[in-house]
Design brief:
The structure holds two protein chains of two kinds. Chain A is α/β, with parallel strands linked by helices. Chain A is built from five helices and four strands. The longest helix of chain A is centred in the middle third of the chain and has 18 residues. Chain B is about 30% helix and about 15% strand. Classes of the chains: A alpha/beta, B alpha/beta.
Chain lengths: ~140, ~325
């Protein structure tokens, strides 16, 4: 059976979600593997959200926020960037490939970039194969 | 009236533990006489010669209160968890190991195979040319010998059986144990099942004795020995990572008073699912850099985030073992 990656994308309300929306209204085609979750700001994305996505079966997690300097709340995306870098370090230690977690800045006008990002990230995850986390958790005792 | 009241039946058991929890019970010192006046110790392997068989022969719900310390590492631990659950009215996960998995839970960074390879063949002090490893079952001419089966994963007590209350700490603060004990003896109304007792609901930082300001901005992470601690200022503000923001209060700031940052043994406060994730949030918030390269440079000094943030809680965290 062909592997269809499950990807969770956390998109900030002000830039990235609007950007994704633009890709849709502009009738751009992109891979259907991404499930978008809208949050008010990329700074709202707690590490728990990302870890929970992985434990519930996500093969990849994509985080998108406003470009540096453009955050609707001034500093949320910087906070997100720092969490992201720390999270990557942590998941690598836990045996999860750090490529499975990606952060990109998408502005409200970057519908095309969003479509391309989804395609390239889906490809990366397809090459990596399924995330083994759920399987590992089942090994009991 | 005192005499007509039946004495409480108390049991203390250690599973995968260091023994510190049992010692913390002994630390009641002269109050031990009050405890013994109010309770009969019916099972306590560290202090009394009572066999597992004797516990098996007790009627169900015979023990009023069992303090179960230690994590679930092997089949013996799990057997005793189920047995003591059956024989006890109130089963308390006592101490970090049974509450969260504790220090033994750090073994979840390895697999059973890796642990056996290290212990029985690779370690510097091992001489084992025949490659003998313990087997759960072994046949000799006298019959079959059994030892407990070593599990791949370390679990907390609540992951294998139904737990009434949790008393956190490595080890729990003895004063808090006495409070809990006294309230049970006095017949006070007990908190709802599943509560963490003998501790606060908020974080360490909430009432920390160190001086905090709004200005939490760091450009470098230090190990405690790398700074000249002034003994007053918040550790985080000095660049030393302290688990306070993600840890439940109630320990009496034992480490902080000893001028050491909190290590997180009391586990997450109410409403926090994953203490390490909370701590990552907290650390990310105080790093005073905006460029990815600069942030990575600061994080380079954080050699082992998983081990530091989940020192006591790996088995109950979201990603409870290393993915293999």
């Amino acid at each position: 059976m062909e592997f269809k990656p499950r990807i969770i994308a956390f998109l900030c309300n002000w830039c990235s979600y609007t950007g994704a929306d633009l890709a849709g209204t502009s009738r751009m085609e992109y891979k259907a593997n991404v499930r978008a979750v809208r949050v008010m700001c990329s700074g709202r994305i707690e590490p728990t959200f990302v870890l929970r996505a992985f434990t519930k079966g996500a093969d990849g997690v994509l985080i998108c926020g406003c470009h540096p300097g453009d955050c609707h709340y001034q500093e949320g995306n910087y906070r997100c960037l720092r969490r992201f870098l720390l999270l990557q370090k942590y998941i690598r230690q836990m045996g999860i490939e750090s490529e499975r977690l990606k952060l990109e800045w998408i502005s409200a006008s970057e519908g095309k970039q969003f479509a391309e990002l989804v395609n390239s990230f889906t490809e990366t995850i397809s090459e990596l194969g399924p995330c083994k986390i759920m399987e590992t958790m089942k090994i009991l005792p | 009236m005192e005499e007509s009241k039946p004495k409480l039946k108390l049991a203390v058991y250690w599973a995968s533990a260091c023994g510190g929890c049992c010692v913390s019970v002994l630390d009641v010192h002269e109050k031990l006489f009050d405890v013994v006046a109010a309770a009969d110790l019916v099972f306590w392997p560290i202090a009394l010669d009572i066999k597992y068989r004797d516990v098996e022969n007790m009627p169900d719900k015979h023990i009023d209160l069992t303090l179960f310390n230690g994590a679930i590492r092997n089949s013996e631990n799990e057997h005793m968890a189920h047995l003591l659950r059956k024989k006890s009215k109130i089963l308390v996960a006592y101490g970090s190991c049974s509450h969260l998995g504790g220090i033994p839970g750090l073994a979840n960074f390895s697999t059973k195979e890796e642990i056996f390879r290290r212990i029985y063949s690779e370690s510097e002090s091992t001489v084992n040319p025949d490659n003998i490893v313990p087997l759960p079952e072994y046949e000799v001419k006298e019959g079959i010998l059994n030892i407990p089966e070593f599990y791949n994963d370390v679990h907390s007590l609540a992951q294998v059986t139904d737990v009434d209350y949790f008393i956190p700490g490595c080890p729990p603060q003895t004063e808090r144990l006495l409070e809990v004990f006294t309230s049970i003896v006095s017949g006070a109304e007990l908190p709802p099942k599943g509560s963490v007792i003998g501790a606060e609901t908020k974080t360490q930082c909430d009432e920390c004795i160190r001086k905090k300001t709004e200005n939490k901005r760091i450009k470098k992470i230090y190990r405690p020995w790398e700074i000249n601690d002034d003994g007053v200022t918040c550790f985080m503000e000095q660049g030393v990572l302290c688990m306070g923001p993600a840890t439940r209060a109630g320990c009496g700031y034992r480490c902080i008073k000893g001028n050491a940052p909190c290590r997180g043994c009391y586990g997450p406060p109410d409403g926090v699912a994953d203490p390490g994730a909370k701590m990552m949030s907290s650390v990310a918030s105080i790093i005073d850099e905006k460029e990815p390269e600069e942030i990575s440079r600061v994080l380079e000094d954080l050699a082992d985030p998983a081990g530091l943030f989940y020192r006591f809680s790996l088995p109950v965290s979201l990603i409870r073992r290393k993915v293999v």
